[in-house]
Amino acid sequence: MKHTLVFDNKPRCRWCNLKNPLYIDYHDNEWCRINFDEHYLYEMLILESFQAGLSWECVLNKRESFREAFDGFDMDKICAYDSEKIEELLQNKNIIRNKLKINAAIQNSKIFKEIVKEKGSFYQYLRSFFDGNIVYETGKTTNELSDAISKDLRKRGMKFVGSVIIYSYLQAIGIIYSHDEECYLYQ
Fold first, then answer.
1. What pTM value is reported for the model?
2. Are the C-beta atoms of residues 120 and 128 closer than 8 Å to each other?
3. Is 123 noted as a catalytic residue in this protein?
4. Active-site residue (options: 23, 48, 81, 167)
5. Does residue 48 carry a catalytic annotation?
């Protein structure tokens, strides 16, 4: 049986932790809302890659610390991170201190930058995989779109961008709309 979470008399998706104001705000005001701003697309891809094997709530709770530690997600600065900066990040108790993920964030940033140079924007890159229409679906963790984008990103050398991570990313930026039927935001 599905259960519906209710907070302030609004039913929300069952995954939304109603004890966490950050999570409620993310659910209500950000998740599945179209946002194709290049900086946002970049930040979310880096954050989603840190989610691999963890919960999104864990990453979200550390989001501000990530912004501070990763220089406001300044792509050029991250592309230039050296071993000294990597060591500084590994010592930062306020972020996810996984050396493989930190190194992947740097490498993925370089590849993101190459894609932007090649396609004009990261949104144009994403747009090359779909017709521009929002995908409305619930109860999935991957689909053909996330499979295709993941495959291409991995081919280009990105790490921690499997189909499940890319599906979550597409939900986060509004390409896939997945609010539960019982949620007040369901469309």
1. 0.94
2. no
3. no
4. 48
5. yes
